[in-house]
Amino acid sequence: MVRMSAEERRESVIRAAVQEFAQGGYHGTSTEAIAKRVGVSQPYLFRLFPGKQAIFLAAATRCLESTRQVFAEASDGLHGEEALDAMGEAYMRLIAEDPAMLQMQLQMYVTVAAAEAAGDHELGELVRAGWLELWDTVRIPLGGDARRVTEFMAKGMLINTLSAMGFPADHRIWDGFADGVGDAAGSAGPAGCRPQ
Q: Model-level pTM?
């Protein structure tokens, strides 16, 4: 059996943390559950990360970076509506193929709001910085058009909400996304299916 390096084990913890936090949220997820998913002891987990908050920060960072990479790869060499369509469709594939990414995003926003209300701004600063990177990744192929970026991101958040609530692809709630391919983040409805 090949032994994992500390960096490989750390990577395993981040992947497991995304899955666990996506399901249980920050307060509902124990470090024990994360350690169990990875197959390590809690003391070993705390050799890799100083505490639960550090694990959550790493999972949140991964979630934001994965989304940013999806946008960057999809829009590479494209501009305007073509870039919007490609980014939207790639994002819809991401959340369809790995629902934990959407769930982790939603848990991240709730956790940031709770932390900010309690006076802890570290997570909020990290998430805001990650969002700015997402914003800029979308802005570049749109030639810096802030209005179009806002529309794309706003519709993307609506898609996140509707998808999280479980509206099926053929539900009338998606009808507004059928107009103007590229106007919606994904313009494809849930699970990568274009609404008719």
A: 0.84
